[in-house]
Amino acid sequence: NYDSSLYVTERVFSVAADGTRIPITLLHKKDFVKDGSNPAHIIGYGSYGSSYDPYFSSQRFLLVDRGFVYAIAHIRGGGDLGRSWYESGKMLCKKNTFTDFISCTEHMISEKYTSAGKVSMQGGSAGGLLMGAVVNMRPDLYGCVVAQVPFVDVVSTILDPTLRFSVLEYKEWGNPNEKNYYDYMMSYSPYDNISKQDYPPILATAGLNDSRVNYWEPAKWVARLRDKSTSDSVFLLRTEMGAGHQGPTGRYDAIKKSCFNLAFILKSLNYMSN
């Protein structure tokens, strides 16, 4: 029953602290009113030079039809605007990825697409690192977080050469055996930078058989969030006991997983009745 005439897509730009224009792709209903009252869902990745191209997904309309504006942040560290875009968001420039994402969120708030606290964000793997870093930096902006197989214990993992991908990751993040890289990575590593502050509700997912992001990373991240947070938010860990990095691969199991994530967002933002 999809009717394209009911929806609008936009390309807008936020401005990062260094003046760089960051593209954002937006999807919302045609009768959407920019008055700050609407919820928003923003996703991003920003690593390995991987572009986050807009594509059609029927699942997005489960949020959009409830009044959400759906956003893709084309942040540095990805390949959306070429090689230089990637280079300016890796190694010792990695923090640009996180501040770009925050800039995109702030732009949506300032332009009254939504308001602080009404924004959910979602990312997986290196995009889960993005979620963890951003929520440490600006927890006040977000109403909830979905971090799928999040790479949140950056330094400990890459320092362990017995793990499958650790040494290969030097090309993306730097070699933590060298002090300048170690200090920089420690300054943003999500697990190492959890502090005593109010955090929004967070859902972290893991796969017991995940060889890229081992299951203990999201587990220890959630445990420390529960210990450190000064809010009464829920910090939920869902570990798929038969899945790997991509989660459940069966058609219906994958749909159930997506619906679980969406239900968490709607409940956290108090939109379950819509």
Any overview of this molecule?
With 274 residues, the chain is an alpha/beta fold. The chain is built from 9 helices and 8 strands. It has an 8-stranded mixed β-sheet with strand order 1-2-4-3-5-6-7-8, sandwiched between helices. Helix 3 crosses helix 4. The chain is globular, with a radius of gyration of 18 Å. The two termini are 19 Å apart. The mean pLDDT is 94.
Low-pLDDT stretches are none
Structural class: alpha/beta
**Count of alpha/pi helices:** 9
Largest beta-sheet characterization? 8 strands, mixed
Give a brief rundown of this model:
By secondary structure, this protein is an alpha/beta fold. The protein is built from 9 helices and 8 strands.
Topology:
Blueprint: E1 7-15, E2 21-29, E3 40-43, H1 61-64, E4 69-73, H2 83-87, H3 95-110, E5 119-124, H4 126-137, E6 142-148, H5 154-158, H6 170-173, H7 179-188, E7 202-207, H8 216-228, E8 235-240, H9 251-268
Parallel strand pairs: 3-4, 3-5, 5-6, 6-7, 7-8
Antiparallel strand pairs: 1-2, 2-4
Helix pairs in contact: 3-4
